[in-house]
Design a protein that fits this description.
Layout: H1 8-14, E1 19-21, H2 33-41, E2 46-48, E3 54-56, E4 68-70, E5 74-75, E6 79-80, H3 89-93, E7 96-101, E8 104-110, H4 118-142, E9 148-149, E10 154-159
Parallel strand pairs: 7-9
Antiparallel strand pairs: 1-4, 2-3, 5-6, 7-8, 8-10
The structure holds iron/sulfur cluster (2 copies).
Length: 160
């Protein structure tokens, strides 16, 4: 997630970004080739997402749809074990997400993040448009399969 805008304490208590229900397992982040290489080096189990990109394998122990599995890179006490620069791009910009709405690229902010006050939303929007936009568009260009379909849980802040 975007540090500096969210309080690390809020995220440490919430951890929503790094836990996945069986029904939201498709939300695991896409890994780029260097990250896939690193994960193989670390013997972290991976899977192929439906869009053909590679992501983390989630170790569900039952068929219970409410069961939650951690991202294998999450230390429940200390947070993400990956250095910030080595995290998947989707993790680095969360709760901002790049999506596709028909043939249009859109950028949205996840409104249900528990830390998302109105002030925080405005700061995040400003920061995204002023600082992150080129990186987000470059990511979408080099990883077109990883760009997900637009979802109404996100408030659009930019449209191509
Ligand atoms: S959902 Fe929001 S508060 Fe929770 S961990 Fe993610 S960024 Fe932090
Ligand atoms: S890579 Fe890190 S930030 Fe991303 S989901 Fe896994 S634990 Fe969370």
């Amino acid at each position: 997630m975007l540090t500096g805008i969210f309080s690390p304490n809020q995220c440490a208590q919430c951890k929503l970004c790094c836990n996945f229900h069986r029904s939201s397992a498709w939300e695991t982040p896409a890994l780029e080739p260097a990250q896939v290489f690193l994960m193989h080096e670390l013997c972290v189990p991976l899977v192929e997402r439906q869009d053909g990109t590679t992501s983390f394998f989630l170790d569900f122990r039952s068929e219970d749809s409410d069961e939650v599995a951690n991202c294998p890179m999450l230390n429940p006490d200390a947070g993400c074990m990956l250095p910030r620069d080595e995290r998947p791009f989707e993790c680095r910009i969360w709760p901002v997400r790049v999506m596709r709405d028909s043939s249009t690229i859109v950028i949205g902010i996840y409104r249900a993040c528990p830390a998302m006050s109105a002030d925080c939303f405005e700061k995040l929007k400003r920061h995204t448009l002023d600082n992150l936009l080129p990186d987000i568009l470059a990511y979408a260009k080099r990883n077109p399969r990883a760009v997900r379909e637009f979802n109404t849980a996100y408030q659009i802040i930019w449209r191509s």
